[in-house]
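Moderator note: this is an archived Q&A kept for reference. The question asked for a predicted structure of one protein chain; the sequence and the answer are reproduced below.
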Amino acid sequence: MAEKSENILIVCAHSDDQIIGAGGTLAKYAKEGKKIHTYIISYGESSHPHYQEEIISSIRFKEALDADKVIGGNSVEFLDIKEGAFADHKNQQYIKEQLMKVIKKTNPIKIFTHSWDDFHPDHRATFSAVRDLIVESKLKIDAYAFEIWNPFTATNSNYPKLVVDITDSFPKKIKALHCFKSQKITLFTLLPAVYIRGFINGLDNHVKYAEVFYKFK
């Protein structure tokens, strides 16, 4: 059983990214006794422009809590930066300031976040904020990137890999993904890729399903 101090922090742009990118690993770590803390930069209010922002924010918050319960997580917190505005200089500074507070509070042994070459600009901006904070503050924390909208992984081949066998926790990952009922289009688009990526990663590493992360700090 892991020590209570073994906290894992995942920093993502939207409320389903943590499950798509690392849900199996988070569920596995939670079962081992590690504490899982999720920090989400945006409520993703633009995903349903026909709703009032407070309504979709409330829906996505509840979905994130439901998914966190499935994987055995310990906390979910939203920052509420508007989508498309992550890369703004003032917002980047604010994200780093608030993220530093979370890091001090949780004292994580590992941080997981988006990759630097993700097609989604908010994902890339999230990665930049995490990386820059670690570098500028000289934090001694292992940091890993996961993939969501990356069709190719060749650019990551020179970075150290963390491979996690998620065969036993893969069903929890899928169950958690289905908590995001408001994101039907995203699920329809990405769910097949989640199965394929998990299977191929598993095949490459001689297990049924695996998640692969790239250590950038």
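Archived answer notes: The first strand starts at residue 7 and ends at 12.
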